[in-house]
Amino acid sequence: MPDPKNSEIQGWSGYKSITNKEIHITKENLNDININKKKVLGRGHGCSFGDQALLSDGMLINSSELNFINWVSESVVEVGSGVEIRYLLSELLPHNKGLIGVPGGLQVTIGGAISNNIHGKDHWKNGNFSENILSITYIDNNGEIKKVFRENEIFHFLIGGMGLFGFIVSTELRTTDIRSAWIKEKSTKINSKNNFIEFVTSIKEGELDVDYSVTWLDFSSKKGLGRGISLTGEFIDGESVSKDFVEERIKENKYVFNTFSTNYFWHLARPFYNQKTLNLLSSLKYKSTKSRVQEQVLFYTDYMWIDNRLIPEYRKLYEPKGFVEIQPLVSIDNGFEQFFELLDFVKFHNIEPLFPSVKLHKEHEHMWTFAGNGLSICLDLPVVRRGKYNFEYLIEEVYKFLSTLEAKVYLAKDSTLTRKHLSKLAPGVDELIQKRKTIDGKFIFDSEMAKRLFQ
Fold this sequence. Notes:
The chain has helices at residues 85-92, 110-115, 123-126, 153-158, 193-204, 243-249, 265-269, 275-288, 300-304, 306-310, 337-348, 391-405, 419-425, 429-439, 448-453; strands spanning 5-10, 17-24, 40-43, 59-62, 69-71, 76-80, 97-98, 133-139, 145-149, 167-174, 176-177, 182-190, 212-217, 228-236, 255-256, 260-261, 293-299, 323-326, 328-331, 357-360, 374-377, 379-382, 408-409. The protein has 455 residues and is of the alpha+beta class. Helix 1 (85-92) runs antiparallel to helix 6. The relative contact order is 0.14.
Protein backbone atom coordinates (compact mmCIF):
# COMPACT_ATOMS: atom_id res chain seq x y z
CA MET A 1 0.00 0.00 0.00
CA PRO A 2 1.61 3.32 -1.04
CA ASP A 3 2.07 6.08 1.50
CA PRO A 4 -0.56 8.82 1.20
CA LYS A 5 0.63 11.93 -0.62
CA ASN A 6 0.00 15.44 0.66
CA SER A 7 -1.97 17.42 -1.90
CA GLU A 8 -3.47 20.86 -2.29
CA ILE A 9 -6.73 19.96 -4.01
CA GLN A 10 -9.39 22.13 -5.57
CA GLY A 11 -12.45 21.91 -7.76
CA TRP A 12 -11.94 22.68 -11.43
CA SER A 13 -13.30 26.23 -11.17
CA GLY A 14 -10.81 27.16 -8.43
CA TYR A 15 -13.50 28.36 -6.03
CA LYS A 16 -13.33 25.55 -3.44
CA SER A 17 -10.13 23.93 -2.19
CA ILE A 18 -8.85 21.70 0.62
CA THR A 19 -5.57 20.26 1.88
CA ASN A 20 -5.65 16.49 2.25
CA LYS A 21 -3.94 13.24 1.42
CA GLU A 22 -4.75 11.02 -1.54
CA ILE A 23 -4.21 7.30 -1.85
CA HIS A 24 -3.48 6.32 -5.44
CA ILE A 25 -5.19 2.98 -5.71
CA THR A 26 -4.22 0.21 -8.16
CA LYS A 27 -5.80 -3.10 -9.14
CA GLU A 28 -3.19 -4.83 -6.98
CA ASN A 29 -3.95 -2.99 -3.73
CA LEU A 30 -7.75 -2.87 -3.89
CA ASN A 31 -8.05 -5.23 -0.91
CA ASP A 32 -5.56 -3.30 1.21
CA ILE A 33 -7.76 -0.31 1.90
CA ASN A 34 -9.43 -0.35 5.31
CA ILE A 35 -12.43 1.52 4.02
CA ASN A 36 -14.80 1.30 6.97
CA LYS A 37 -12.53 2.96 9.53
CA LYS A 38 -12.81 6.54 8.27
CA LYS A 39 -14.59 8.84 5.86
CA VAL A 40 -13.80 8.03 2.24
CA LEU A 41 -14.32 9.64 -1.17
CA GLY A 42 -13.24 8.61 -4.64
CA ARG A 43 -11.64 11.19 -6.91
CA GLY A 44 -10.63 11.11 -10.56
CA HIS A 45 -9.18 13.89 -12.71
CA GLY A 46 -10.87 16.64 -10.68
CA CYS A 47 -13.25 17.85 -13.40
CA SER A 48 -16.15 18.56 -11.01
CA PHE A 49 -16.36 22.34 -10.79
CA GLY A 50 -17.19 22.63 -7.11
CA ASP A 51 -16.74 20.56 -3.93
CA GLN A 52 -18.33 17.30 -4.99
CA ALA A 53 -14.96 15.53 -5.26
CA LEU A 54 -13.44 17.20 -2.18
CA LEU A 55 -13.22 15.78 1.37
CA SER A 56 -11.28 17.56 4.09
CA ASP A 57 -11.70 15.12 7.00
CA GLY A 58 -11.21 11.69 5.48
CA MET A 59 -9.39 9.61 2.90
CA LEU A 60 -9.41 10.58 -0.76
CA ILE A 61 -8.93 7.59 -3.05
CA ASN A 62 -7.47 8.66 -6.37
CA SER A 63 -8.48 6.41 -9.25
CA SER A 64 -5.96 7.61 -11.85
CA GLU A 65 -3.98 4.34 -11.76
CA LEU A 66 -7.09 2.27 -12.45
CA ASN A 67 -6.43 2.98 -16.11
CA PHE A 68 -7.01 -0.37 -17.79
CA ILE A 69 -9.10 -0.97 -20.93
CA ASN A 70 -10.02 -4.54 -21.97
CA TRP A 71 -12.29 -5.63 -24.80
CA VAL A 72 -14.83 -8.18 -23.56
CA SER A 73 -16.43 -8.66 -26.98
CA GLU A 74 -16.70 -6.78 -30.27
CA SER A 75 -19.08 -4.27 -28.71
CA VAL A 76 -18.38 -4.42 -24.94
CA VAL A 77 -15.35 -2.95 -23.21
CA GLU A 78 -14.25 -3.17 -19.56
CA VAL A 79 -12.82 0.14 -18.35
CA GLY A 80 -11.10 1.15 -15.13
CA SER A 81 -12.69 4.08 -13.31
CA GLY A 82 -9.55 6.21 -13.65
CA VAL A 83 -9.51 6.16 -17.45
CA GLU A 84 -10.18 9.59 -18.94
CA ILE A 85 -12.80 9.56 -21.68
CA ARG A 86 -10.32 10.93 -24.22
CA TYR A 87 -8.06 7.88 -23.73
CA LEU A 88 -10.99 5.52 -24.02
CA LEU A 89 -11.87 7.24 -27.30
CA SER A 90 -8.35 6.56 -28.54
CA GLU A 91 -9.22 2.88 -28.17
CA LEU A 92 -12.76 3.11 -29.59
CA LEU A 93 -12.53 5.49 -32.54
CA PRO A 94 -10.05 3.42 -34.61
CA HIS A 95 -12.70 0.65 -34.50
CA ASN A 96 -15.49 3.09 -35.48
CA LYS A 97 -17.01 2.73 -32.03
CA GLY A 98 -18.44 5.47 -29.84
CA LEU A 99 -20.43 6.12 -26.66
CA ILE A 100 -23.64 7.86 -25.68
CA GLY A 101 -23.41 10.97 -23.51
CA VAL A 102 -19.82 12.01 -24.16
CA PRO A 103 -19.35 15.41 -22.46
CA GLY A 104 -17.65 18.57 -23.74
CA GLY A 105 -14.74 17.97 -21.34
CA LEU A 106 -12.94 14.82 -22.47
CA GLN A 107 -10.69 14.71 -19.38
CA VAL A 108 -13.60 13.41 -17.28
CA THR A 109 -12.83 9.95 -15.89
CA ILE A 110 -15.14 6.98 -16.30
CA GLY A 111 -15.73 6.94 -12.53
CA GLY A 112 -16.76 10.59 -12.66
CA ALA A 113 -18.95 9.98 -15.70
CA ILE A 114 -20.85 7.27 -13.82
CA SER A 115 -21.05 9.11 -10.48
CA ASN A 116 -22.58 12.16 -12.18
CA ASN A 117 -24.42 10.34 -14.96
CA ILE A 118 -23.06 12.93 -17.33
CA HIS A 119 -24.60 14.05 -20.61
CA GLY A 120 -23.42 15.37 -23.95
CA LYS A 121 -24.58 17.19 -27.05
CA ASP A 122 -26.75 14.18 -27.92
CA HIS A 123 -28.80 14.19 -24.72
CA TRP A 124 -32.16 14.99 -26.32
CA LYS A 125 -31.69 12.02 -28.65
CA ASN A 126 -29.78 9.32 -26.78
CA GLY A 127 -29.97 10.18 -23.08
CA ASN A 128 -27.34 10.11 -20.33
CA PHE A 129 -24.06 8.21 -20.01
CA SER A 130 -25.95 5.52 -18.09
CA GLU A 131 -27.25 4.19 -21.43
CA ASN A 132 -23.79 2.67 -22.01
CA ILE A 133 -23.42 0.91 -18.65
CA LEU A 134 -23.88 -2.85 -18.37
CA SER A 135 -22.20 -3.53 -15.02
CA ILE A 136 -20.31 -1.72 -12.25
CA THR A 137 -17.61 -3.14 -9.99
CA TYR A 138 -17.28 -1.14 -6.77
CA ILE A 139 -16.09 -1.19 -3.16
CA ASP A 140 -18.94 -0.86 -0.66
CA ASN A 141 -18.94 0.72 2.80
CA ASN A 142 -17.75 -2.55 4.33
CA GLY A 143 -14.72 -2.67 2.07
CA GLU A 144 -16.10 -5.52 -0.03
CA ILE A 145 -15.60 -5.60 -3.79
CA LYS A 146 -18.86 -6.29 -5.62
CA LYS A 147 -20.07 -6.43 -9.21
CA VAL A 148 -23.63 -5.31 -9.89
CA PHE A 149 -25.94 -5.15 -12.90
CA ARG A 150 -29.11 -3.31 -13.90
CA GLU A 151 -31.30 -5.73 -11.97
CA ASN A 152 -29.51 -4.75 -8.73
CA GLU A 153 -30.99 -1.72 -6.96
CA ILE A 154 -27.59 -0.31 -5.89
CA PHE A 155 -26.56 -0.18 -9.58
CA HIS A 156 -28.97 2.71 -10.11
CA PHE A 157 -27.74 4.65 -7.06
CA LEU A 158 -24.10 4.30 -8.04
CA ILE A 159 -25.10 6.00 -11.29
CA GLY A 160 -25.60 9.65 -10.46
CA GLY A 161 -24.89 8.96 -6.77
CA MET A 162 -21.99 11.45 -6.67
CA GLY A 163 -19.59 8.98 -5.06
CA LEU A 164 -21.73 8.54 -1.95
CA PHE A 165 -22.66 4.86 -2.46
CA GLY A 166 -19.25 3.32 -3.01
CA PHE A 167 -15.92 3.61 -4.77
CA ILE A 168 -16.25 2.64 -8.42
CA VAL A 169 -13.43 0.35 -9.58
CA SER A 170 -14.50 -0.43 -13.13
CA THR A 171 -17.43 -0.79 -15.48
CA GLU A 172 -18.48 -2.70 -18.57
CA LEU A 173 -19.74 -0.44 -21.34
CA ARG A 174 -21.73 -1.25 -24.45
CA THR A 175 -20.25 0.73 -27.34
CA THR A 176 -22.18 2.04 -30.34
CA ASP A 177 -21.31 1.74 -34.03
CA ILE A 178 -20.43 5.00 -35.83
CA ARG A 179 -19.80 5.61 -39.53
CA SER A 180 -16.31 6.97 -38.85
CA ALA A 181 -14.46 9.27 -36.46
CA TRP A 182 -15.32 12.30 -38.61
CA ILE A 183 -18.12 14.80 -38.05
CA LYS A 184 -19.75 17.19 -40.50
CA GLU A 185 -20.34 20.33 -38.45
CA LYS A 186 -23.03 22.63 -39.75
CA SER A 187 -23.10 26.20 -38.36
CA THR A 188 -26.53 27.78 -38.80
CA LYS A 189 -27.08 31.46 -38.03
CA ILE A 190 -30.17 31.98 -35.87
CA ASN A 191 -31.53 35.47 -36.41
CA SER A 192 -34.31 35.81 -33.83
CA LYS A 193 -36.16 34.33 -30.89
CA ASN A 194 -38.71 32.74 -33.22
CA ASN A 195 -35.90 31.34 -35.36
CA PHE A 196 -34.38 29.79 -32.21
CA ILE A 197 -37.70 28.19 -31.23
CA GLU A 198 -38.14 26.79 -34.75
CA PHE A 199 -34.62 25.37 -34.71
CA VAL A 200 -34.93 23.70 -31.28
CA THR A 201 -38.35 22.30 -32.19
CA SER A 202 -37.00 20.83 -35.43
CA ILE A 203 -34.24 19.08 -33.44
CA LYS A 204 -36.59 17.87 -30.73
CA GLU A 205 -39.19 16.53 -33.15
CA GLY A 206 -36.59 14.82 -35.34
CA GLU A 207 -37.36 16.94 -38.39
CA LEU A 208 -33.67 17.86 -38.46
CA ASP A 209 -31.89 14.52 -38.21
CA VAL A 210 -28.46 15.09 -36.66
CA ASP A 211 -26.30 13.29 -34.10
CA TYR A 212 -25.27 16.28 -31.96
CA SER A 213 -26.47 19.80 -31.31
CA VAL A 214 -25.38 22.79 -29.26
CA THR A 215 -26.26 26.45 -29.73
CA TRP A 216 -24.15 29.50 -28.93
CA LEU A 217 -26.22 32.56 -27.95
CA ASP A 218 -25.41 36.21 -28.58
CA PHE A 219 -25.99 38.27 -25.41
CA SER A 220 -24.75 41.59 -26.84
CA SER A 221 -28.25 43.02 -27.17
CA LYS A 222 -31.31 42.57 -24.96
CA LYS A 223 -33.50 43.15 -27.99
CA GLY A 224 -31.76 40.33 -29.85
CA LEU A 225 -31.85 37.68 -27.13
CA GLY A 226 -32.44 34.31 -28.74
CA ARG A 227 -30.23 34.88 -31.75
CA GLY A 228 -26.98 32.98 -32.10
CA ILE A 229 -25.29 30.18 -33.99
CA SER A 230 -26.21 26.51 -33.80
CA LEU A 231 -23.51 23.89 -34.21
CA THR A 232 -24.97 20.56 -35.25
CA GLY A 233 -22.85 17.48 -35.86
CA GLU A 234 -23.45 14.43 -38.02
CA PHE A 235 -21.26 11.37 -38.44
CA ILE A 236 -20.04 10.91 -42.01
CA ASP A 237 -18.01 8.32 -43.88
CA GLY A 238 -14.33 9.11 -43.55
CA GLU A 239 -10.85 7.71 -43.54
CA SER A 240 -9.85 5.21 -40.87
CA VAL A 241 -7.68 6.47 -38.03
CA SER A 242 -5.05 4.83 -35.87
CA LYS A 243 -4.74 4.95 -32.10
CA ASP A 244 -1.61 7.10 -32.49
CA PHE A 245 -3.58 9.56 -34.63
CA VAL A 246 -6.31 9.88 -31.99
CA GLU A 247 -3.80 10.27 -29.16
CA GLU A 248 -2.20 13.16 -31.03
CA ARG A 249 -5.60 14.87 -31.42
CA ILE A 250 -6.56 14.52 -27.75
CA LYS A 251 -3.52 16.26 -26.34
CA GLU A 252 -4.28 19.30 -24.21
CA ASN A 253 -4.08 22.41 -26.37
CA LYS A 254 -1.69 25.04 -24.99
CA TYR A 255 -2.79 27.88 -27.27
CA VAL A 256 -5.96 29.98 -27.12
CA PHE A 257 -7.46 30.16 -30.63
CA ASN A 258 -4.42 28.05 -31.57
CA THR A 259 -2.33 31.24 -31.42
CA PHE A 260 -1.79 32.64 -27.93
CA SER A 261 -0.08 30.64 -25.19
CA THR A 262 -2.22 29.83 -22.17
CA ASN A 263 0.86 30.68 -20.08
CA TYR A 264 0.20 34.37 -20.61
CA PHE A 265 -3.02 34.97 -22.58
CA TRP A 266 -5.56 34.66 -19.77
CA HIS A 267 -3.35 36.69 -17.41
CA LEU A 268 -3.14 39.52 -19.95
CA ALA A 269 -6.86 39.29 -20.76
CA ARG A 270 -7.98 39.45 -17.12
CA PRO A 271 -8.02 43.27 -16.74
CA PHE A 272 -10.24 43.55 -19.82
CA TYR A 273 -12.71 40.89 -18.74
CA ASN A 274 -16.04 42.61 -18.16
CA GLN A 275 -19.53 42.59 -19.64
CA LYS A 276 -18.76 45.44 -22.03
CA THR A 277 -15.89 43.45 -23.57
CA LEU A 278 -17.94 40.24 -23.64
CA ASN A 279 -20.79 42.02 -25.39
CA LEU A 280 -18.42 43.53 -27.96
CA LEU A 281 -16.84 40.15 -28.72
CA SER A 282 -20.24 38.47 -28.83
CA SER A 283 -21.57 41.04 -31.30
CA LEU A 284 -18.48 40.69 -33.50
CA LYS A 285 -18.80 36.90 -33.53
CA TYR A 286 -22.45 37.04 -34.51
CA LYS A 287 -22.08 39.74 -37.16
CA SER A 288 -18.95 38.20 -38.67
CA THR A 289 -20.91 35.05 -39.48
CA LYS A 290 -22.10 36.25 -42.86
CA SER A 291 -23.71 33.24 -44.51
CA ARG A 292 -26.81 31.56 -43.13
CA VAL A 293 -25.23 28.08 -43.18
CA GLN A 294 -21.59 27.02 -43.12
CA GLU A 295 -20.18 23.49 -43.12
CA GLN A 296 -16.84 21.93 -42.24
CA VAL A 297 -15.53 18.45 -41.50
CA LEU A 298 -13.97 18.01 -38.06
CA PHE A 299 -12.38 15.12 -36.27
CA TYR A 300 -14.71 13.79 -33.57
CA THR A 301 -12.73 15.10 -30.60
CA ASP A 302 -12.33 18.56 -32.19
CA TYR A 303 -16.10 18.86 -32.48
CA MET A 304 -16.83 17.53 -29.00
CA TRP A 305 -14.05 19.26 -27.06
CA ILE A 306 -14.71 22.86 -28.11
CA ASP A 307 -13.06 24.37 -25.02
CA ASN A 308 -9.78 22.62 -25.75
CA ARG A 309 -9.91 23.59 -29.42
CA LEU A 310 -10.63 27.29 -28.87
CA ILE A 311 -10.31 28.45 -25.25
CA PRO A 312 -8.16 25.94 -23.33
CA GLU A 313 -7.61 26.58 -19.62
CA TYR A 314 -10.14 29.43 -19.62
CA ARG A 315 -10.46 29.02 -15.86
CA LYS A 316 -7.19 30.98 -15.58
CA LEU A 317 -9.19 34.05 -16.56
CA TYR A 318 -10.83 33.95 -13.11
CA GLU A 319 -7.70 33.49 -11.00
CA PRO A 320 -6.87 33.80 -8.17
CA LYS A 321 -10.35 33.51 -6.59
CA GLY A 322 -11.94 31.35 -9.27
CA PHE A 323 -15.54 31.29 -10.42
CA VAL A 324 -18.81 29.49 -9.83
CA GLU A 325 -20.69 27.78 -12.61
CA ILE A 326 -24.42 27.19 -12.35
CA GLN A 327 -26.09 25.13 -15.06
CA PRO A 328 -29.88 25.36 -14.86
CA LEU A 329 -32.23 23.23 -16.94
CA VAL A 330 -35.55 24.93 -17.71
CA SER A 331 -38.57 22.91 -18.83
CA ILE A 332 -40.12 23.57 -22.24
CA ASP A 333 -43.14 21.35 -21.57
CA ASN A 334 -45.36 24.43 -21.77
CA GLY A 335 -43.37 26.40 -24.32
CA PHE A 336 -40.21 28.51 -24.33
CA GLU A 337 -41.38 31.50 -22.29
CA GLN A 338 -39.58 30.50 -19.08
CA PHE A 339 -36.31 29.91 -20.90
CA PHE A 340 -36.44 33.42 -22.36
CA GLU A 341 -37.28 34.78 -18.91
CA LEU A 342 -34.01 33.23 -17.77
CA LEU A 343 -32.12 34.90 -20.64
CA ASP A 344 -33.66 38.25 -19.66
CA PHE A 345 -32.58 37.70 -16.05
CA VAL A 346 -29.04 36.82 -17.13
CA LYS A 347 -28.80 39.92 -19.30
CA PHE A 348 -30.28 42.25 -16.66
CA HIS A 349 -27.85 41.04 -13.99
CA ASN A 350 -24.82 41.07 -16.30
CA ILE A 351 -23.96 37.41 -15.84
CA GLU A 352 -23.52 36.49 -19.50
CA PRO A 353 -21.12 33.54 -19.62
CA LEU A 354 -17.87 33.43 -21.57
CA PHE A 355 -19.25 30.74 -23.89
CA PRO A 356 -23.08 30.75 -23.57
CA SER A 357 -23.92 27.32 -24.94
CA VAL A 358 -27.43 25.85 -24.88
CA LYS A 359 -28.22 22.14 -24.94
CA LEU A 360 -31.48 20.29 -25.42
CA HIS A 361 -32.33 17.49 -22.96
CA LYS A 362 -34.82 14.71 -22.39
CA GLU A 363 -36.25 12.85 -19.40
CA HIS A 364 -34.44 10.16 -17.39
CA GLU A 365 -35.97 7.42 -15.26
CA HIS A 366 -34.34 8.70 -12.05
CA MET A 367 -35.21 12.16 -10.79
CA TRP A 368 -31.79 12.83 -9.23
CA THR A 369 -30.16 12.64 -12.67
CA PHE A 370 -29.72 15.97 -14.47
CA ALA A 371 -32.29 15.47 -17.21
CA GLY A 372 -35.69 16.64 -18.34
CA ASN A 373 -37.60 17.93 -21.34
CA GLY A 374 -35.93 21.31 -21.51
CA LEU A 375 -32.98 23.53 -22.29
CA SER A 376 -29.87 24.18 -20.20
CA ILE A 377 -27.30 26.96 -20.28
CA CYS A 378 -24.08 27.35 -18.28
CA LEU A 379 -23.70 30.57 -16.24
CA ASP A 380 -20.21 31.63 -15.09
CA LEU A 381 -20.06 33.93 -12.06
CA PRO A 382 -16.60 35.28 -11.16
CA VAL A 383 -15.98 35.43 -7.42
CA VAL A 384 -14.38 38.83 -7.94
CA ARG A 385 -17.00 40.95 -9.71
CA ARG A 386 -16.81 44.45 -11.11
CA GLY A 387 -20.55 44.95 -11.57
CA LYS A 388 -23.09 46.58 -9.27
CA TYR A 389 -24.10 43.25 -7.66
CA ASN A 390 -21.68 41.55 -5.28
CA PHE A 391 -21.01 37.83 -5.54
CA GLU A 392 -22.97 36.56 -2.52
CA TYR A 393 -26.05 38.65 -3.31
CA LEU A 394 -26.08 37.59 -6.94
CA ILE A 395 -25.72 33.88 -6.16
CA GLU A 396 -28.77 34.03 -3.88
CA GLU A 397 -30.75 36.00 -6.49
CA VAL A 398 -29.94 33.42 -9.15
CA TYR A 399 -31.16 30.52 -7.01
CA LYS A 400 -34.31 32.40 -5.97
CA PHE A 401 -35.13 33.18 -9.58
CA LEU A 402 -34.44 29.63 -10.76
CA SER A 403 -36.83 28.39 -8.05
CA THR A 404 -39.63 30.50 -9.55
CA LEU A 405 -38.97 28.78 -12.89
CA GLU A 406 -38.89 25.33 -11.22
CA ALA A 407 -35.55 24.81 -12.93
CA LYS A 408 -33.16 21.97 -12.16
CA VAL A 409 -29.51 22.64 -11.23
CA TYR A 410 -26.63 20.38 -12.28
CA LEU A 411 -24.96 19.30 -9.01
CA ALA A 412 -21.77 18.14 -10.78
CA LYS A 413 -20.98 21.81 -11.39
CA ASP A 414 -22.47 23.27 -8.23
CA SER A 415 -20.54 24.70 -5.29
CA THR A 416 -22.93 27.27 -3.77
CA LEU A 417 -26.42 25.77 -3.58
CA THR A 418 -27.86 25.74 -0.05
CA ARG A 419 -30.29 23.38 1.67
CA LYS A 420 -32.84 26.18 1.51
CA HIS A 421 -33.12 25.72 -2.27
CA LEU A 422 -32.12 22.05 -2.54
CA SER A 423 -35.47 20.27 -2.81
CA LYS A 424 -36.75 22.85 -5.27
CA LEU A 425 -33.73 22.94 -7.58
CA ALA A 426 -32.61 19.30 -7.26
CA PRO A 427 -35.87 17.34 -7.37
CA GLY A 428 -35.41 13.68 -6.60
CA VAL A 429 -32.39 14.23 -4.40
CA ASP A 430 -34.48 13.47 -1.30
CA GLU A 431 -34.81 9.87 -2.52
CA LEU A 432 -31.04 9.74 -2.96
CA ILE A 433 -30.49 11.07 0.58
CA GLN A 434 -32.90 8.55 2.14
CA LYS A 435 -31.35 5.62 0.28
CA ARG A 436 -27.88 6.75 1.40
CA LYS A 437 -29.04 6.71 5.03
CA THR A 438 -30.39 3.18 4.56
CA ILE A 439 -27.29 1.79 2.86
CA ASP A 440 -24.57 3.80 4.61
CA GLY A 441 -25.99 5.22 7.85
CA LYS A 442 -22.50 6.14 9.10
CA PHE A 443 -21.85 8.12 5.91
CA ILE A 444 -18.57 6.33 5.26
CA PHE A 445 -18.60 7.75 1.74
CA ASP A 446 -18.74 11.50 2.15
CA SER A 447 -17.83 14.79 0.49
CA GLU A 448 -17.82 18.51 1.14
CA MET A 449 -20.89 18.81 -1.07
CA ALA A 450 -22.72 16.12 0.89
CA LYS A 451 -21.93 17.89 4.16
CA ARG A 452 -23.13 21.18 2.70
CA LEU A 453 -26.38 19.86 1.26
CA PHE A 454 -27.38 16.46 2.63
CA GLN A 455 -26.40 16.21 6.32
